[in-house]
Amino acid sequence: MQSEQIFNISDVSQQTGVAAVTLRAWERRYGLIKPERTPKGHRCYKQANIDEIQQIIGWLNRGVAISKIAPLLASNEEFKGVSERDNHWLKTQQDILTELIKLKPSSLNQLLDLLNKSTPFISLCENVCQPLQLLLKDRWQAEEHGYELELQLWQQCWQRQITLMTLRADKQKFHAHCTLVNLGSELPSLDYWLFYGLLLQAGVRIDAINNIKDIACLNRLNQDAGLPIILFADRRLTIIEMKQLSKLISSWLGDSFCAGRIADIHSEQLTELEIKFRGGSASHCWQSAKFQAWLVSIGLR
């Protein structure tokens, strides 16, 4: 009889998109997913565990709080919908917005820390960060008194989250390696940080270059032959920058990809350059067939 396949926590994390730290939190804090253990204490997951993880993700994406999922799984209860009042994501957005408006960095960091540990990052992007960013954009465009303080605090909190995620990722096995470049002199956008986080949690080692004014200087990176590069920008490039980008892509020794608003704004030019690209939000780009195929090409899948 063929024995059942066993997966370690790194394999399960890559298959499901749920970080190892989140899988451990679900087990310890919420009593979810109870894999077997080796004599040395290492977790051994079976296909049934992976199926249960997918069920949990489904409940989360419907707006059910992680703390309320265990009894739903135990009873095999059918989904009957979540009211707006009980929608965990809407409440979470409001909680974050409240702490941000109060300019309370410690409370905001604590809230984001808990979310980032207990929530699959793609779900956090789609259900909290991206919709909240639209609300904040409208708020800041009105230039209410002190809006710059909110903007800076929001940026600082996300830089901190990425630092924490990078430190956790350094303890895990990496499955691919790439350079991620933010084009422009402005602070990286939230979508840039979210994309960064998605790469980290998928097992990609990142060489990050956050602010590049002169695209031509990136040619020096070609010394590291074969390293894939992701060019990210949330703005329109100048004519000179497009010419520099064209030269960079034509001479690049590894795989390349363009993401962010640049992919929507310059789709015609990028098509002519024969570079792979995908616009939209960080989560939409990440889940697109085009980007997933690119991940396969660099050896991630």
Description:
The chain is an alpha/beta fold and 301 residues long. It has three domains: 9-75, Orthogonal Bundle (Multidrug-efflux Transporter Regulator, Chain: A, Domain 2); 88-167; 174-297, Rossmann fold. The protein contains 14 helices and seven strands. The chain has helices at 9-16, 20-30, 47-61, 69-75, 88-101, 105-118, 121-141, 147-169, 190-201, 239-251, 261-265, 267-272, 282-287, 289-297; strands at residues 36-37, 43-44, 176-183, 204-212, 229-232, 256-259, 276-278. The strands form two sheets. It has a five-stranded parallel beta sheet with strand order 4-3-5-6-7. β3, α9 and β4 form a beta-alpha-beta unit. The protein is globular, with a radius of gyration of 21 Å. The two termini are 29 Å apart.
